[in-house]
Design a protein that fits this description.
The structure is a single chain. The protein has 448 residues and is mainly alpha-helical. Helices cover 73% and strands 0% of the residues. The longest helix has 30 residues. It is elongated.
């Protein structure tokens, strides 16, 4: 009996492979675009209200004068003032080039950074931060002598100073492989693992930025991610993404990006399962969805998604990455009874709906044993609801899920027919993007 059904569905299997290929290509393109957008965005901290137009172009003689005063001024106030003037000058690209050409300039800054004068330390760190924000890799590499000290200060007591050091390190990591190559043996991973236990939200957000820059490096799968997975960072990241009164959305978004890059690497995603990644992720998504759904104001849902556009999609992207090529992760998702929680997210928005359907397709395409866990149950009514939507991408993803279910769980076809599934398809027959897939699905259902 099964062999006869298998032969009948052979043409459909080809269509599924084509849909699967298109989906993978679309995901790869989206992932690449999102990665590039995130990668190029360095972050800048400035205490005062000056903007880019306030940057002062300093001549070489002025740079030398400010360095000399900062190093050996008559009193601490004069030294601090000289560093403030230098910092403002370093906001200008030409001043940055002048600075790194001067012999001993970075050494002087490092000396001030390691002094026992807190105000001078802070201003020296701000000067390095301005240099780290440069778009020129030569400027970033000139800061190499400072990296070991920046790492050391991550274990300090001032949260503001730690935050500044973190963003400076993150900016340097983006720009230069030489910087990354130096930071690894200097112990950046253990330093971050200690720093992630900080109680300060600003520090945790900055740490997430540094970590995401490390994880995006081209050498990350071979040289960085294994050491991160061997550290305590994964369980702490997941701890900070657990729903509850202590959850901070900004921190959760940063670490969602980090976990996204780890799962994309496919280095050792099983480590994340041992730390409860799937359950944590789905519970977080449900908590966020519940927050939106409990609000009386109908317009607030859109406001919320615009204010925090990253967290729900990022969480679902993580689930997509985990389940795309791993039967083990799909088994874990089903064993943890996470199907119904995922289905609860479908009505939230079209973007969320597409990603949930994509995760379900990942599970369904693993074969008959997995489809038997999806059907029967609440899945059919949920998919029928998505077929009533006007968004063609949502409907297209729903059709792909149905095709996979019909292929591997033929009993689903009868349920589909009994619940007026064909009528739900008819409203989309005139849409060019969906026409061929709808006809194939209709023929499969009719001749089953």
């Amino acid at each position: 009996m099964w062999s006869g059904r298998q032969a009948r569905f052979r043409p459909l299997a080809c269509g599924v492979e084509e849909l699967r290929r298109r989906r993978r290509e679309r995901e790869a393109a989206l992932r690449k675009a999102r990665r590039e957008q995130h990668l190029v965005s360095k972050r800048l901290l400035r205490e005062d209200a000056e903007g880019p137009c306030a940057a002062e172009l300093l001549r070489e003689v002025e740079v030398q004068q400010f360095l000399r005063l900062a190093q050996s001024g008559t009193d601490e106030k004069e030294r601090e003032k000289a560093l403030v003037s230098l910092r403002r000058g370093l906001q200008h690209p030409e001043t940055q080039q002048t600075f790194i050409r001067l012999e001993g300039s970075v050494r002087t800054l490092v000396g001030l950074l390691t002094s026992n004068r807190a105000l001078l330390q802070l201003e020296a760190a701000r000067c390095l931060h301005e240099l780290s924000h440069s778009e020129q890799s030569a400027v970033a590499e000139a800061c190499l002598p400072a990296t070991s000290y920046l790492l050391t200060y991550l274990s300090g007591h001032s949260s503001d100073f730690i935050e500044l050091c973190l963003y400076t390190l993150g900016n340097l990591i983006v720009e230069s492989e030489a910087v990354r190559k130096q930071l690894l043996p200097q112990g950046i991973v253990p330093a971050l693992a200690a720093c992630i236990q900080s109680p300060y939200v600003a520090v945790l957000e900055a740490l997430g930025y540094v970590l995401s820059q490390l994880l995006q490096a081209k050498e990350a799968p071979e040289k960085i991610i294994p050491s991160i997975l061997d550290s305590t960072l994964p369980q702490h990241m997941l701890r900070l993404m657990q729903p509850g009164p202590k959850l901070n959305l900004g921190v959760a978004v940063e670490f969602a990006w980090c976990l996204h890059y780890i799962t994309c690497s496919q280095v050792n995603n099983a480590v994340l399962i041992t730390h409860g990644a799937l359950a944590t992720l789905v519970l977080l998504l449900l908590d966020l969805a519940g927050t939106v759904q409990r609000v009386d104001d109908a317009g607030l849902e859109l406001f919320f998604l615009q204010k925090q556009p990253s967290l729900l999609p990022e969480g679902l992207w993580l689930l997509n990455n985990l389940t795309a090529n791993s039967p083990t992760f799909c088994t874990s998702l089903l064993s943890l009874d996470l199907l119904e929680p995922l289905l609860q997210l479908l009505p939230l928005s079209n973007v969320v709906c597409i990603l949930v359907l994509t995760v379900l397709c990942n599970v369904a395409e693993k074969g008959p044993a997995y489809c038997q866990r999806l059907w029967p149950g609440p899945l059919l009514s949920c998919v029928l609801n998505t077929l009533t939507l006007s968004d063609t991408e949502v409907v297209g993803q729903s059709l792909e899920l149905l095709q996979l279910l019909f292929l591997y769980q033929p009993e689903a076809i009868q349920d589909f027919l009994q619940q007026s599934g064909l009528q739900a398809l008819e409203q989309h027959q005139e849409e060019a993007q969906l026409r061929d897939r709808i006809r194939a699905l209709q023929q499969t259902a009719i001749h089953a």
